[in-house]
Amino acid sequence: MKALIISDSHGLEDELNEVIDRHKNEVDIFIHCGDSELTKDHFALQGVNVVKGNCDYGDDFLEEWVETIDDTTIYVTHGHLYNVKMTHVPLSYRAEEKGAQIACFGHSHVAGAFEENSVIYINPGSIRMPRNRKEKTYCICARTSTETTVTYYEQNGKVVEDLTSRF
């Protein structure tokens, strides 16, 4: 299973489309963790699984999304409903309730991945307004039966080596 994960693009259209187009032949699924500030039918979100962020208005998107791909259950939420800027505990409870092996979230604009209680948590950062780093980031999660790798990229496609994680 290979997933492109992006979040907090805050109205960017062409840049979002470029990222998706760059990886369209190498990933199985596209995930946007909210705050796209676009409508569900927008050209840049075609074929992308999107959840609603605190800056997304209307009822276009679900608050959370769960999918099982190749025996991997992925849980996606924006994170604002779980207070992710302060703690990951409420998010971890929800991910465990959903039986997720991977939990994706945004909201904080802080890129990073970690593992806790056999769940891998992934925040792709932001391609518009990153925090704690200068790079505008997204990531690709590649999972096999023996390893999960989360590779972070700058918006232009350059790998951010020090953020890459293996679990």
Tags for this entry?
Purple Acid Phosphatase, chain A, domain 2, five-stranded mixed sheet, 167 residues, single chain, 2 helices, six-stranded mixed sheet, globular, mainly beta
Helical stretch tally = 2
Structural class: mainly beta
Report Rg: 14 Å
CATH superfamily: Metallo-dependent phosphatases
Please report which band the strand proportion falls in: under 5%, 5-15%, 15-25%, 25-35%, 35-45% or over 45%: 25-35%
Average per-residue pLDDT, rounded, comes to 96
Per CATH, the architecture is: 4-Layer Sandwich
**Widest sheet: strand order?**
3-2-1-9-10-11
Biggest β-sheet, characterized?
Answer: 6 strands, mixed
CATH topology descriptor? Purple Acid Phosphatase, chain A, domain 2
Q: How many E strands?
A: 11
- Distance from N terminus to C terminus (CA atoms, Å) equals 14 Å
Uncertain spans: none
Shape: globular
Helix amount:
10-25%
CATH class: Alpha Beta
The SSE string, one letter per element, is EHEEEEHEEEEEE
> What's the number of domains?
1
How would you explain this protein's 3D organization?
This protein has helices spanning 14-23, 89-97, and strands at residues 2-6, 29-32, 49-50, 64-69, 72-77, 102-104, 112-116, 119-123, 137-143, 148-154, 165-166. The chain is mainly beta and 167 residues long. The protein has one domain (2-166): 4-Layer Sandwich (Purple Acid Phosphatase, chain A, domain 2). The strands form two sheets. The protein has a six-stranded mixed β-sheet, with no helix packed on it. Strands 4-5-6-8-7 form a five-stranded mixed β-sheet, with helices on one face. A hairpin with a 4-residue loop joins β9 (137-143) and β10 (148-154). The longest helix has 10 residues, at 14-23. The mean pLDDT is 96. It holds the Pfam family Metallophos_2. Residues 1-141 form the Calcineurin-like phosphoesterase domain. Keywords: Metal-binding.
